[in-house]
């Protein structure tokens, strides 16, 4: 697929890039991770003025959307700048409220989301029982879930690489719904069953805040109770819509994170010398950078292809490809920087850890691949039925 953005879309991306480049986002990220949201909220307000969040809000609620292609452009830039906060979840909340078909609920929050005044977070099946940045968000929507088991698997067996190790498992195995949980803890596999996925509530508060693989991603479980907003089939449809849009925005963010990691690494190997020669001239280094570049380039058409169709299978394909490409770029960046990316003082670590967290947020690689295969199998079944019919 050859996909070209039009001049307005390219100019929108350049405008956001300039805005974020002037915002010293590494400082914003560090403050956010420490629980100081002042700079992050100021940046969020500027993004709202630039129209980022209105892209997911229907026109009748003061938005201009939904415009998935423009959202992809925007979220690639947000990822490239490592912007903290529940940006993808706010897009998902817009989809959730729009899909509920309740004008009163939509008018209650969507205009604020469109303007950037309202920062929303989610805790829904498919994303885990923890809401991202619930302590910073203006509003948290959640679907009630079963309680966490008292005994959890050892954290050593649930490292950030767990997604790769689990890829040999069946799609419906005991693989937890997400990696991005406090202390490496995992959501129970039956998350989303029972009442979960059948109710949508407004969280009255949240539990203790935990750091995730990315310190700037602060996780908290919504408190029980709260206002019931929807239930039954309508709630289930809205949750699915929110899952799709949040996953899509996460994929775009991951692509931007990967591109930023590659750009920083290319700049570094040009200036670091060994034996009097820039290491970027070494063939082995060139090969690693070329591999990372190709993976990111292959992810782009899948992301924008998903923006055109917004089907669950295409979104899942874009998510797994973009996040795996970003993760590979983070590994390349870490190695070619001589492993200094491990040190938190180096800004590079902000992107490396974000790539690690986004890889399994809103769908692990194995779960996304399973979603694609299920869609393919479903299509094949229908083709077979059609063939028999003829």
Short description, anyone?
53% of the residues lie in helices and 7% in strands. The protein has helices spanning 7-21, 25-33, 38-49, 68-80, 87-100, 103-115, 162-165, 233-271, 283-309, 312-336, 348-358, 365-389, and strands at residues 120-123, 131-132, 139-142, 199-202, 210-211, 218-220, 227-231, 273-274, 277-278. It is globular.
Write the layout of secondary structure elements.
Layout: H1 7-21, H2 25-33, H3 38-49, H4 68-80, H5 87-100, H6 103-115, E1 120-123, E2 131-132, E3 139-142, H7 162-165, E4 199-202, E5 210-211, E6 218-220, E7 227-231, H8 233-271, E8 273-274, E9 277-278, H9 283-309, H10 312-336, H11 348-358, H12 365-389
Parallel strand pairs: 1-3
Antiparallel strand pairs: 2-6, 3-4, 4-7, 5-6, 8-9
Helix pairs in contact: 1-4, 2-3, 4-8, 5-6, 5-8, 8-9, 8-10, 8-11, 9-10, 10-11, 10-12
Q: What keyword list fits this structure?
A:
390 residues; 7% strand; 4-stranded mixed sheet; 12 helices; alpha+beta
Note down, in words, how this protein is organized.
The protein is built from twelve helices and nine strands. The protein has helices at about 5-20, 25-35, 40-50, 70-80, 85-100, 105-115, 160-165, 235-270, 285-310, 310-335, 350-360, 365-390; strands spanning about 120-125, 130, 140, 200, 210, 220, 225-230, 275, 275-280. The chain has a four-stranded mixed sheet. Helix 1 runs parallel beside helix 4 (about 70-80) and helix 9 runs antiparallel to helix 10. It is globular and about 65 Å long. Residues about 150-180 and about 180-195 have low confidence and may be disordered.
